[in-house]
Design goal:
This protein is an alpha+beta fold. Helices cover 38% and strands 19% of the residues. The protein is built from 10 helices and 12 strands. The longest helix is centred in the first third of the chain and has 13 residues.
C-alpha cells in the first residue's frame, strides 16, 4: 500500500481508493487502514481519510507535521483557517512558551482533534471573523496560514479569556508600537474589523494613553454607542479604580 501511494506521490488516501488497484475487499481495506493507523504508519484525519508518509518511516512510526495535518483537515471540509493564539504569540516573539497544541480559528469545525501526534484546538468562527492573515511557507513545500502580527495583538485583547492574554497583551501592543513593527492606524483598523465593544474600549484607552492622534481615536469612538456600563482594564482583577468615562474603562491595573 505504501509503495503504491508513494510512487504516485499521494499524501492522502480515502477508503475505497485501494480496493481496485490492490485487489482488496472493502473489509480487507478497512482492516489494513485500521492496523496501519494503530501501528503509527499512517495517520487518520477523520473516518475514511488518512495521511501517508512520503517515505517509509524510520523506526516504524510516523506522524504528519502541523501544516499537513491542519491543511488536510480543513481542505477536506472546504474550509478556511488561521493559526492564532499561543502559536501566533510565540511566532511573533510575544511569548517564549512553545505551545503543545495548535490553535486555529476556522469556519467549519469546533473542538479538539488529534491527527497523529498533532493536537489541534479548533475554534469555529463566522466567515467574517477570518482575515488579516500571513501565509508562511514550510520547508516541506506547504503553506500555513497565521493571523497577522497586528491581528494577533487584537485577538490577544478580544479573546483574552481563552488565551489568558490580558494584561500581557497591553504590554505587547505598547512594545510593538514603540518598535515600529505595527502602526497605530493598523491597530485601529483591525480592532474595528475584528474586535467587539470590549476590545475597542480597551484598545482605545490604551492608544489614548500612548498619545495616538485624535483622528484615530475618533474612529474608535464612532464605533461605540453611548453607555453607562463599565468594563475593567484588567478583567482578572476586581473592578475598582479610576474611571475613564470616555471609553467606559475602570483603570484597575496599570500593568
Amino acid at each position: 500500500m505504501l509503495a503504491y501511494l508513494q510512487i504516485r506521490k499521494q499524501r492522502a488516501v480515502r477508503t475505497g481508493e485501494l480496493t481496485g488497484p490492490l485487489r482488496l475487499t472493502r473489509a480487507q481495506e478497512r482492516e489494513l487502514f485500521r492496523r496501519m493507523a494503530r501501528g503509527g504508519l499512517i495517520a487518520r484525519v477523520r473516518p475514511g481519510l488518512y495521511l501517508i508518509p512520503p517515505h517509509l518511516p524510520l523506526g516504524g512510526s510516523w506522524t504528519p507535521d502541523e501544516a499537513l495535518a491542519l491543511n488536510t483537515l480543513l481542505a477536506d471540509r472546504q474550509g478556511r483557517y488561521q493559526i492564532c493564539g499561543p502559536n501566533a504569540f510565540n511566532r511573533y516573539g510575544f511569548d517564549e512558551q512553545v505551545p503543545t497544541r495548535v490553535y486555529a480559528y476556522n469556519n467549519r469545525i469546533s473542538g479538539e482533534r488529534s491527527i497523529g501526534a498533532v493536537a489541534l484546538t479548533l475554534i469555529k468562527v463566522a466567515d467574517e471573523r477570518l482575515g488579516d492573515t500571513a501565509e508562511v511557507p514550510t520547508p516541506e513545500g506547504l503553506t500555513v496560514v497565521y493571523s497577522s502580527r497586528v491581528r494577533t495583538l487584537v485577538d490577544a485583547v478580544y479573546d483574552w479569556s481563552r488565551f489568558n492574554s490580558l494584561p500581557r497583551a497591553f504590554g505587547w501592543i505598547r512594545a510593538e508600537l514603540a518598535a515600529g513593527r505595527v502602526g497605530a492606524a493598523e491597530v485601529v483598523r483591525v480592532a474595528l474589523s475584528y474586535g467587539d465593544i470590549g476590545t475597542i474600549r480597551r484598545i482605545a484607552a490604551l492608544l489614548e494613553r500612548q498619545g495616538v492622534g485624535a483622528a484615530l481615536l475618533r474612529k474608535l469612538e464612532r464605533a461605540l454607542r453611548p453607555s453607562t456600563s463599565l468594563i475593567p482594564w484588567n478583567p482578572a482583577r476586581p473592578k475598582r479604580g479610576t474611571v475613564d468615562r470616555r471609553w467606559g474603562v475602570v483603570w484597575n491595573d496599570r500593568a
